[in-house]
Amino acid sequence: MTGDMTGPAPEPAPAITAAPTPTPTATTGDRTGTTEALPVTAVTCLEDRSQVERTTTVGLTAGVQRLRLGPLTALAVDRTLRAESATLGVRVLDARLVRSWAPRAPLPPGPDDSELRHRLHRLDTESRLADQARARLEARLALLAQLSADLLREIGEGAGVGELERTRWARELDRVDAERERYGEELRTTHSRLRRLEQERSQALIALDEAEEDPAELTAHLDLTVEAAQAGPAELTVSHLVPCALWRPSYRATLDGGSLRLESEAVVWQRTGEDWSGARLTFSTARSALATDPPAVAEDVLMLRERTDEERRTVEVELREEAISELGPGAGVPGVDDGGEVRVLPAPAPATVPSDGRAHRVPLGAFTGPASSEYACAPELSPLVTQVVRFRNTAGHPLLAGPVELVRGSGFTGRGELRFTATGADAELSFGSSDGYRVVRETEQRQATGGLTGRQTTTRTVRLHLSRFSGPEEHDERIVTVRERVPVSEVSAVEVRLRKEECSPAPDAFDAEGIVRWDVPLGPGARRTLTLVYEIAASAKVAGL
Questions:
Q1: CA distance 352 to 339
Q2: What are the tens digits of pLDDT across the range 45-103?
Q3: Burial class (CB in 10 A: 0-12, 13-18, 19+), 429
Q4: Which domain holds residue 259?
Q5: Same domain, 172 and 235
Q6: How does strand 344-346 pair with strand 276-284?
Q7: pLDDT value at position 544?
């Protein structure tokens, strides 16, 4: 009734022994066999790279010794490596980066890994759990075998002295046999499952080897040669440049009635191979890769020639579109617009930026101030009436050019762009178009030529029909600023004149760039018509208009 159904005994666990600790000598030592951690403590993000600073405290012995610190990113630029110690009596004699190829660490698959790797990870997990269950079942069966042997020995000893407990002995033997039968069946099922999982895992490994290649990973360590006057702890600081890390400014503007709150953020991307955990971040607009030498001056050859009779009789002109130049993103080099001067913006608190190549936002600060709002329209470019908000920069530092998330009473309204704004200067943001306005633009042109002089005169009339569609809850009057443009002549043979007496109503402003402005008051449901008239007069020898 008590057959032995136990499996093979579990293999003994390997012994774990501590590695001997190297004992440094009193004068010189080599500790490159052991590695000290070198975490990132501060980062200065530049426009297209970053300056990384690392700080650690190590125990030194008296004399000259070698240390190995790391690991650190293999993208560190060797020529920018700098190591120093602030501890008195400690001097860094030499610092160099040592790179080596090593297999990748066994990490669980991520969201970007293939389904084959995920399946292999699941099979490994199931195999590990099944092996643990097998070990528990074998231990329980061994315990039941020992219990059965003890019970049989008790029966033999009791029968020898005449103490017979047949009912209890039979009950105990039946219970032990039933337990051994049940756990034995579970063990056979577990062995079968382990064989199936091992077979599936072998097939998955073969498929993974044929489909994917797991490349080795390039790692780097820092070897330092340090001289210490006496034994004790010393603080070491290491700094270097690293590529694959950059930042750009970003903002969030919230309009609440007559006030505006502007929150400044730095958007950081980095894929340097190591995470920046709890590091002090500083954001700079310095361009370390920009050439410092002035460009070479090339020769410009000028040649004179006599004009032909046809060229003397005619003046070639053409109409040209020209953007009004001002300080902004188009005025500087591509990247961060800092107004031509290097700006440094420290983050108020330590931040963590993983090395995943994704955008991570780091808050820089915020301020709230009064804001004025107007509704503006340029019908030649767009029939939409846009709400423009103006405010003063009271952040205490210049606002760099960057994208802005716009938020007002109804929530997120879109994205805009903030131009470079100096400290205390006025800035403006467009909060999108308003559906309660409509602008229709009509143009008319008349041409006339003088009979005796041949002078050509072109008269252009622009009519703007502005309407406001308001709901029953709106009762206030709003000012809509309408802007039109008039051509500006650069040659004396062509004259452009604004005929103010025929404009209805008369423009409120007309600047040297040819921009005409009206400030039109519109009540609920009101309609207005604006008329702009100007003429272009050219002499008979002008061609090209």
A1: 29
A2: 998 899 999 999 999 999 999 999 989 999 999 999 999 998 999 999 999 999 988 77
A3: buried
A4: 246-288+336-434
A5: no
A6: antiparallel
A7: 63
List the end-to-end C-alpha distance of the chain, in Å, as a whole number. 117
DSSP lists the bridge partners of residue 392 as 426
pLDDT grade, residue 291 (50/70/90)?
low
**Bridge partners, 260 (sequence order):** 255, 369
Q: Which two tokens stand for residue 185?
A: 């069946």
Query: Which of 434, 451, 475 is the endpoint of a domain?
Result: 434
The answer to whether 536 and 545 are in contact (CB under 8 A) is yes
CA 476 – CA 523 distance, rounded (Å)? 6
The predicted structure's pLDDT at residue 104: 67
CA 379, CA 443: separation in Å to the nearest integer? 11
The answer to whether 34 and 68 are in contact (CB under 8 A) is: yes
In degrees, rounded to 5, the angle at the alpha carbon of residue 466 between the alpha carbons of residues 465 and 472 is: 140
Neighbours of 531 (CB within 10 A): 13
DSSP structure string for 253-284: EEEETTEEEEEEEEEEEE-SSS-EEEEEEEEE
* Average pLDDT of the residues in 135-156: 88
Report the 10 Å Cβ neighbour count for 1: 9
The answer to whether the CB of 465 falls within 8 A of the CB of 452 is no
Closest to 399 (Cα-Cα) out of 371, 367, 423, 416 = 423
| Residue 178 vs residue 290, higher pLDDT | 178
Q: Residue-wise over 85-123: b if at least 16 C-beta within 10 A, else e?
A: bebeebebeebebeeeeeeeeeeeeeeeeeeebebbbeb
Domain count, the chain: 4
Assess whether pLDDT exceeds 50 at residue 247.
Answer: yes
Question: Which one, of 71, 56, 54, 59, lies nearest residue 31 by Cα?
Answer: 59
The amino acid at residue 524 is P
CA distances from 176 to 142, 172, 184, 343 (A): 12, 6, 12, 82
Q: Are residues 479 and 491 in the same domain?
A: yes
Residue pair 203/16 in contact by the 8 Å Cβ criterion: no
Residues 370 and 410 in one domain: yes
